[in-house]
Design a protein that fits this description.
about 375 residues; alpha+beta; Cathepsin B, Chain A; seven-stranded antiparallel β-sheet; about 40% helix; binds 2-acetamido-2-deoxy-beta-D-glucopyranose; PCS-like; glutathione gamma-glutamylcysteinyltransferase activity; cadmium; transmembrane helix
């Protein structure tokens, strides 16, 4: 079997998180079948990278031409996981350089980028609560915490969870909001205790994030609604855009997005990812992605077409059905873990989640 083909299959199950490096999209994977020449080029690069990994890392790693074998040698232990990420990272960059362009990205570390902000953009609400994801799989969790904290009005009518660390102040933290042990709603939304553990390793998809958000939103009169970017026509894509723009222009609503970094020209630093949107600028037709992986990029203005390229990608695991036995993430090898979770994953499109007051929703 062609090693690249196998690599593609073995890594296609990787999700929305810091192990985002391993996530493959349709657009990326389709490029694998482009040409024999390209395959051989990639095979050569793969061999060079393998040798590099072997030479620079421990001598427990032996020369392997088969990526699956490399994956199973590396396993999921944190100390070796970084080797795996590094390896994948190099592998992905090769594709992205040819496939995507970062033309049009404007980072919020330039004064002209600040000038695109509107007076009432959600960016300002996120100033109370937008924090870096605390581990590399928690992009969705940091995103949810940012949204909850951003809804904390001056009148504090929005009831946030309390993390004992900040007692007596209410504040959504990444520790508390996915704590399935102390919250039955979260326990159910995550699919029980064994599945809950998986969040730390593979992140969350659009099939689960709104349910978890609703555990905190519904009692406060808000609701989270998923909008998968499954549009097949330009008209449908425009309808979706209008929903997002309308929500961003309403001070009580928030929008978060689940996207592939490759689509917006940031593929060199990973793939499946979550972040809140901080605003829309009509003149430039761009959206402000407030990246919760603050250790990677500042917030970035991204044109609609690029944003749409990023969200209209497939996630192999939008939702993980309940695991009935625990996964020993530290001791099982990569291929074993994949074989357990693959049958429980529901694939689908990434997309947006709109958070808004319930009564606004009822009116429609
Ligand atoms: C797209 O997603 C929406 C919302 O989940 C769903 O109602 C619709 O059937 C989906 N369309 C396609 C073509 O899958
Ligand atoms: C702004 O951020 C971009 C993207 O991370 C980076 O390439 C650039 O060097 C940064 N510029 C400044 C002035 O820090």
């Amino acid at each position: 079997m062609n090693p690249q083909k196998k690599m593609n299959e073995s890594t296609s199950l990787l999700l929305n998180g810091g192990y985002e490096q391993k996530q493959r999209t349709d657009s990326v994977s389709s490029s694998f079948s482009l040409s024999f020449l390209r395959k051989t080029t990639i095979a050569t690069i793969f061999a060079v990278v393998s040798v590099f990994v072997i030479l620079t890392k421990t001598n427990q790693l032996r020369v392997q031409e088969d990526p699956i074998a490399v994956a199973s040698m590396l396993g999921w232990k944190d100390d070796v996981h970084y080797d795996w990420e590094e390896f994948q990272h190099k592998y992905v960059i090769i594709e992205d350089d040819n496939t995507y362009s970062d033309e049009g990205i404007l980072y919020l570390n330039e004064s002209r980028a600040f000038r695109l902000l509107g007076d009432n953009d959600d960016f300002y609400y996120y100033q109370q609560g937008w924090e870096a994801q605390m581990n590399q799989a928690y992009c969705s969790v940091a995103t949810m915490a940012a949204v909850l904290n951003s809804l904390r009005g001056d009148d504090t009518s929005f009831k946030l969870p309390m993390d004992p660390i900040y007692d007596p102040f209410y504040w959504a933290t990444q520790h508390t909001i996915v704590d399935a042990k102390h919250n039955d709603c979260v326990f159910n939304a995550l699919g029980g205790k064994y599945s809950a553990e998986s969040v730390k390793h593979i992140g969350l998809g659009i099939g689960m994030v709104p349910d978890i958000m609703n555990c905190y939103l519904n009692s406060n009169g808000y609701v989270a609604i998923p909008y998968p970017a499954n549009s097949t026509t330009e008209v449908e894509a425009n309808d979706l855009k209008h929903i997002i723009v309308d929500a961003l222009s309403d001070g009580r609503s928030r929008v978060v997005l689940n996207y592939d970094r490759g689509g917006i020209g940031q593929g060199g630093l990973g793939h499946g990812h979550w972040s809140p949107l901080g605003g829309y600028n009509k003149e430039t037709d761009s959206f402000l992605i407030m990246d919760v992986a603050k250790y990677k990029h500042p917030p970035a203005w991204v044109k609609w077409m690029n944003l749409f390229d990023g969200v209209s990608t497939k996630d192999t695991c939008t939702k993980l059905l309940s695991l009935d036995t625990p996964i020993d993430w530290n001791n099982m090898d990569f291929t074993t873990i994949l074989s357990i979770i693959s049958p429980l994953c529901i694939p689908g499109y990434r997309g947006f989640v709109v958070v808004k007051p319930k009564n606004m929703y009822d009116d429609e």
